[in-house]
Specification:
By secondary structure, the protein is α+β, with helices and mostly antiparallel strands. It has helices at 3-13, 19-33, 51-65, 92-101, 111-125, 144-155, 177-187, 190-238, 241-244, 248-259, 265-271, 278-296; strands at 44-48, 77-79, 82-89, 126-128, 137-141, 162-166, 169-174.
């Protein structure tokens, strides 16, 4: 099961909410999955490829309206886009009663109901990418009004969501890992939240280790390349009077560099007599390299 599937499975199983929250969640599922063009016919149709959204609406109808007749979840109906699930309510009085009860606005919604609406919207049209790969939560909205309404609800919890037009849909999305965690918390997906955090921690630890390894590898490469250049410069001096006339301190450093090609500056300093710091070793090696350059240019 995908990470999104696990979240939706958890959300579908949530229960024990007060009736006003259940109505808010129903309103969201209806907004995102309802066939609104059939309202004038006195029929309510909930249609989705996501069985969990239809099943949740089915459950909430029973809990909030004590309705167990005149509707059912059909078997999957297949069309060119694949399978989808349909829930139909055909009694006009029931349809009018439900529509009247699930009308919501941001001004009239309590904080708990806003959470329920966001939960229903995600259950109907949301997804979260695998946090091991990337951080991306999105909810596909039918129109701009729907996207702006949902963004306003998220903003009330200090979660900034952005929107983008993708084909004919307005997609609301959150890409910040911390804000995705906050969104999961708002929806009540606490198990998924912990899974997301665990994967995020592991991912950040791996990235941190990789950065350190890459940095150390780069530093080792620089050290090896620098040592190789130093050795080449010293060997160029060795068969000349310049090398034979070197001051004892410089000659000792030249011999140490050639004898210990893999030694660091610190290690070369510890081998010197007297012991030198890294800056002292570096100064002498630079001087030897400069003399080799001058020899190449005929200055020595």
């Amino acid at each position: 099961m995908s990470f999104s599937g696990k979240i939706k499975d958890e959300l579908e199983r949530l229960s024990g909410m007060p009736r006003h929250c259940q109505l808010a969640e129903m309103a969201a599922i209806y907004d995102f999955c309802g066939k609104h063009s059939e309202e004038e016919e006195g029929k309510m149709v909930i249609s989705s490829e996501n069985e969990l959204a239809v099943r949740k609406y089915f459950t909430l109808l029973g809990k909030t309206f004590n309705m167990y007749k005149d509707y059912s979840v059909d078997s999957p109906v297949y069309n060119k886009k694949g399978s989808y699930y349909i829930l139909e309510i055909v009694n006009k009085e029931d349809v009018d009663r439900i529509r009247s009860a699930i009308k919501v606005t941001t001004d009239s919604m309590r904080s708990c109901c806003r959470r329920a609406y966001i939960r229903g919207a995600f259950l109907a049209a949301g997804s979260v990418s695998n946090p091991e790969k990337s951080y991306h939560l999105e909810i596909v909205c039918q129109d701009e009004r729907q996207a702006l309404f949902l963004a306003e609800l998220l903003e009330s919890f200090d979660i900034e969501a952005k929107t983008i037009l993708r084909k004919k849909y307005h997609v609301l999305y959150v890409k910040d890992g911390t804000k995705i965690v906050e969104t999961l918390n708002v929806m009540g997906a606490h198990i998924a939240l912990m899974d997301f955090e665990n994967m995020r921690i592991l991912k950040e630890m791996r990235n941190s280790v990789n950065r350190k390894v890459n940095c150390e590898t780069a530093n080792i490469g620089k050290t090896v390349n620098a040592a190789q250049r130093q050795i080449e410069d010293i060997k160029q001096l060795m068969n000349t009077d310049v090398y034979r006339n070197l001051p004892p301190a410089l000659r000792e450093m030249a011999d140490l560099r050639v004898t210990y090609p893999e030694a660091t500056l610190k290690e070369l300093g510890e081998l010197s007599t007297p012991t030198l710091g890294k800056s002292g070793v570096n100064h002498r090696l630079r001087k030897l390299s400069k003399m080799a350059e001058e020899l190449k240019g005929g200055e020595l």
